[in-house]
Design brief:
Layout lengths: L14 E6 L3 H8 L3 H4 L2 E7 L2 H10 L4 E5 L9 H9 L4 E5 L8
Parallel strand pairs: 1-2, 1-3, 3-4
Helix pairs in contact: 3-4
Length: 103
Amino acid sequence: MPYPLLVDSNIFATLKLLIVDDEWIIANSLSSMEEWDERNIDVVAIAHNGYDAIRYLEAEPISLVISDIRMSDMDELQLLQYIYEEMPNTQVILISGSNGENL
């Protein structure tokens, strides 16, 4: 099976990125990284909770989600389970600001 993001042998499709973090400073810092343009990634939205993330995911196709593993409104893996079941082609990167004691 070909690499799913490859459009042509020399041209890569623009990835649509959704950032999910309930800490605004983390979400805003991630969204403003200059490297996104260099890597042909378009930050299409920031969600500050899991339910908002699901609304964005239902509204438009998202290629990549970077999400905090811990959010105040959802169980740690609820969003991941939703994406896995409803949008299996969406790639997910989980991040955590926790020191690891409660993961």
